[in-house]
Amino acid sequence: MRIVLIGAAGTIGQAADQALAERHQLIRVSRTRGDQQVDIAQPESIRALFEAVAPFDAVVCAAGQAAFGSIADLSDDDFQLGLTSKLMGQVNLVRLGLASISDGGSFTLSSGVLGRNPVPDSCSISMVNAGLDAFTRAAALGMPRGVRINVVSPPWVRETLLALGRDPTPGLSASVVAKAYVDSVEGEMTGERLDPRDYV
To answer: Which fold has domain 2-195?
Structure first.
Protein backbone atom coordinates (compact mmCIF):
# COMPACT_ATOMS: atom_id res chain seq x y z
CA MET A 1 0.00 0.00 0.00
CA ARG A 2 0.97 3.62 -0.55
CA ILE A 3 0.57 5.28 2.87
CA VAL A 4 0.74 8.97 3.76
CA LEU A 5 2.22 9.09 7.28
CA ILE A 6 1.64 12.48 8.89
CA GLY A 7 3.66 13.24 12.00
CA ALA A 8 6.40 10.92 10.79
CA ALA A 9 9.10 12.79 12.71
CA GLY A 10 7.41 12.40 16.10
CA THR A 11 7.83 9.64 18.65
CA ILE A 12 4.73 7.69 17.64
CA GLY A 13 5.21 8.53 13.98
CA GLN A 14 8.73 7.11 13.93
CA ALA A 15 7.52 3.91 15.58
CA ALA A 16 4.66 3.61 13.09
CA ASP A 17 7.16 4.19 10.28
CA GLN A 18 9.32 1.29 11.48
CA ALA A 19 6.29 -0.98 11.82
CA LEU A 20 4.82 -0.20 8.38
CA ALA A 21 7.86 0.40 6.17
CA GLU A 22 8.78 -3.24 5.58
CA ARG A 23 5.49 -4.01 3.83
CA HIS A 24 4.31 -0.67 2.47
CA GLN A 25 5.47 2.40 0.57
CA LEU A 26 5.50 5.35 2.95
CA ILE A 27 5.27 9.05 2.17
CA ARG A 28 6.72 10.62 5.31
CA VAL A 29 5.20 13.97 6.19
CA SER A 30 5.82 16.46 8.99
CA ARG A 31 5.69 20.20 9.47
CA THR A 32 9.30 20.89 8.58
CA ARG A 33 10.93 17.76 7.10
CA GLY A 34 10.27 14.47 5.40
CA ASP A 35 9.17 13.67 1.86
CA GLN A 36 6.48 16.36 2.13
CA GLN A 37 5.54 19.06 4.61
CA VAL A 38 2.10 19.98 5.96
CA ASP A 39 0.51 22.15 8.62
CA ILE A 40 -2.71 20.30 9.41
CA ALA A 41 -4.12 23.43 11.05
CA GLN A 42 -4.25 24.99 7.57
CA PRO A 43 -6.74 23.45 5.09
CA GLU A 44 -4.83 24.88 2.11
CA SER A 45 -1.68 23.12 3.30
CA ILE A 46 -3.61 19.84 3.47
CA ARG A 47 -5.01 20.37 -0.03
CA ALA A 48 -1.51 21.03 -1.38
CA LEU A 49 -0.19 17.87 0.28
CA PHE A 50 -2.86 15.63 -1.19
CA GLU A 51 -2.46 17.17 -4.64
CA ALA A 52 1.26 16.43 -4.47
CA VAL A 53 1.02 12.80 -3.33
CA ALA A 54 -2.23 11.48 -4.84
CA PRO A 55 -3.26 8.77 -5.31
CA PHE A 56 -2.75 6.87 -2.06
CA ASP A 57 -4.26 3.95 -0.19
CA ALA A 58 -4.10 5.10 3.42
CA VAL A 59 -3.56 8.16 5.58
CA VAL A 60 -2.12 7.74 9.08
CA CYS A 61 -2.00 10.80 11.30
CA ALA A 62 0.12 10.93 14.45
CA ALA A 63 0.11 14.73 14.63
CA GLY A 64 -1.85 17.55 16.21
CA GLN A 65 -1.37 20.06 18.99
CA ALA A 66 -3.46 20.91 22.06
CA ALA A 67 -2.79 22.82 25.27
CA PHE A 68 -2.68 21.71 28.89
CA GLY A 69 -3.77 24.05 31.66
CA SER A 70 -6.48 24.69 34.21
CA ILE A 71 -9.87 25.81 32.96
CA ALA A 72 -9.32 29.06 34.84
CA ASP A 73 -6.02 29.75 33.09
CA LEU A 74 -6.53 28.49 29.53
CA SER A 75 -7.03 31.35 27.09
CA ASP A 76 -9.22 31.53 24.00
CA ASP A 77 -6.10 30.85 21.95
CA ASP A 78 -5.23 27.81 24.06
CA PHE A 79 -8.62 26.23 23.41
CA GLN A 80 -8.52 27.25 19.75
CA LEU A 81 -5.15 25.53 19.29
CA GLY A 82 -6.61 22.10 20.05
CA LEU A 83 -9.75 22.74 18.04
CA THR A 84 -7.88 24.02 14.97
CA SER A 85 -4.89 21.69 15.03
CA LYS A 86 -5.63 18.33 16.59
CA LEU A 87 -9.40 18.19 16.05
CA MET A 88 -10.23 20.03 12.81
CA GLY A 89 -6.78 19.29 11.41
CA GLN A 90 -7.55 15.58 11.45
CA VAL A 91 -11.19 16.06 10.43
CA ASN A 92 -9.94 17.99 7.41
CA LEU A 93 -7.46 15.25 6.53
CA VAL A 94 -10.47 12.99 6.08
CA ARG A 95 -12.72 15.54 4.35
CA LEU A 96 -10.06 16.73 1.93
CA GLY A 97 -8.43 13.34 1.44
CA LEU A 98 -11.55 11.48 0.34
CA ALA A 99 -11.23 12.67 -3.25
CA SER A 100 -7.75 11.14 -3.63
CA ILE A 101 -7.82 7.99 -1.51
CA SER A 102 -8.24 4.65 -3.23
CA ASP A 103 -11.43 2.62 -3.07
CA GLY A 104 -11.30 0.56 0.10
CA GLY A 105 -8.57 2.79 1.54
CA SER A 106 -8.34 3.88 5.16
CA PHE A 107 -7.81 6.83 7.46
CA THR A 108 -6.23 6.34 10.87
CA LEU A 109 -6.47 9.30 13.26
CA SER A 110 -5.02 9.87 16.74
CA SER A 111 -6.94 10.87 19.85
CA GLY A 112 -5.69 9.89 23.31
CA VAL A 113 -6.51 8.31 26.63
CA LEU A 114 -7.35 11.68 28.19
CA GLY A 115 -10.60 11.68 26.22
CA ARG A 116 -11.84 8.90 28.49
CA ASN A 117 -9.66 9.31 31.56
CA PRO A 118 -9.01 13.01 32.14
CA VAL A 119 -6.48 14.32 34.60
CA PRO A 120 -6.18 17.78 36.17
CA ASP A 121 -5.43 20.49 33.60
CA SER A 122 -6.50 18.31 30.66
CA CYS A 123 -9.90 19.90 29.95
CA SER A 124 -8.93 21.21 26.50
CA ILE A 125 -7.08 18.15 25.23
CA SER A 126 -9.64 15.78 26.78
CA MET A 127 -12.39 17.61 24.90
CA VAL A 128 -10.51 17.35 21.61
CA ASN A 129 -9.68 13.66 22.08
CA ALA A 130 -13.28 12.77 22.88
CA GLY A 131 -14.40 14.75 19.83
CA LEU A 132 -12.08 12.73 17.59
CA ASP A 133 -13.42 9.47 19.01
CA ALA A 134 -17.00 10.58 18.30
CA PHE A 135 -16.15 11.93 14.85
CA THR A 136 -14.63 8.59 13.88
CA ARG A 137 -17.69 6.61 14.94
CA ALA A 138 -20.04 8.94 13.06
CA ALA A 139 -17.89 9.39 9.94
CA ALA A 140 -17.62 5.62 9.50
CA LEU A 141 -21.37 5.47 8.93
CA GLY A 142 -21.13 7.53 5.75
CA MET A 143 -17.74 6.82 4.20
CA PRO A 144 -17.98 6.23 0.42
CA ARG A 145 -16.41 3.54 -1.78
CA GLY A 146 -15.62 1.18 1.08
CA VAL A 147 -13.18 3.62 2.70
CA ARG A 148 -12.56 2.85 6.36
CA ILE A 149 -11.78 5.16 9.28
CA ASN A 150 -10.46 4.37 12.77
CA VAL A 151 -8.84 6.30 15.58
CA VAL A 152 -5.96 5.16 17.79
CA SER A 153 -6.18 6.35 21.39
CA PRO A 154 -2.68 6.12 22.85
CA PRO A 155 -1.98 6.14 26.57
CA TRP A 156 1.05 7.97 27.89
CA VAL A 157 4.05 6.95 25.80
CA ARG A 158 7.14 5.83 27.71
CA GLU A 159 9.59 7.71 25.50
CA THR A 160 7.59 10.93 25.85
CA LEU A 161 7.50 10.64 29.65
CA LEU A 162 11.28 10.14 29.68
CA ALA A 163 11.77 13.20 27.47
CA LEU A 164 9.66 15.23 29.91
CA GLY A 165 11.74 14.02 32.86
CA ARG A 166 8.82 12.09 34.31
CA ASP A 167 8.50 8.54 35.61
CA PRO A 168 8.16 6.32 32.52
CA THR A 169 6.67 3.39 34.44
CA PRO A 170 3.00 4.14 33.57
CA GLY A 171 3.86 4.61 29.90
CA LEU A 172 3.61 2.20 26.99
CA SER A 173 6.50 1.92 24.56
CA ALA A 174 6.03 3.60 21.19
CA SER A 175 6.69 0.30 19.43
CA VAL A 176 3.65 -1.25 21.12
CA VAL A 177 1.53 1.83 20.38
CA ALA A 178 2.51 1.45 16.71
CA LYS A 179 0.86 -1.98 16.58
CA ALA A 180 -2.56 -0.33 16.81
CA TYR A 181 -1.79 1.87 13.81
CA VAL A 182 -0.69 -1.16 11.80
CA ASP A 183 -3.87 -3.01 12.76
CA SER A 184 -6.00 -0.07 11.63
CA VAL A 185 -4.24 0.10 8.26
CA GLU A 186 -4.06 -3.63 7.55
CA GLY A 187 -7.26 -4.80 9.24
CA GLU A 188 -10.87 -4.62 8.16
CA MET A 189 -12.47 -2.70 11.04
CA THR A 190 -14.03 0.74 10.70
CA GLY A 191 -15.44 3.24 13.14
CA GLU A 192 -13.32 1.77 15.93
CA ARG A 193 -11.29 3.37 18.70
CA LEU A 194 -8.15 1.26 19.07
CA ASP A 195 -6.45 1.18 22.48
CA PRO A 196 -2.76 0.24 22.18
CA ARG A 197 -2.89 -1.30 25.64
CA ASP A 198 -4.83 -4.14 24.02
CA TYR A 199 -1.73 -5.00 21.95
CA VAL A 200 0.64 -5.68 24.84
So the answer is: Rossmann fold (3.40.50)
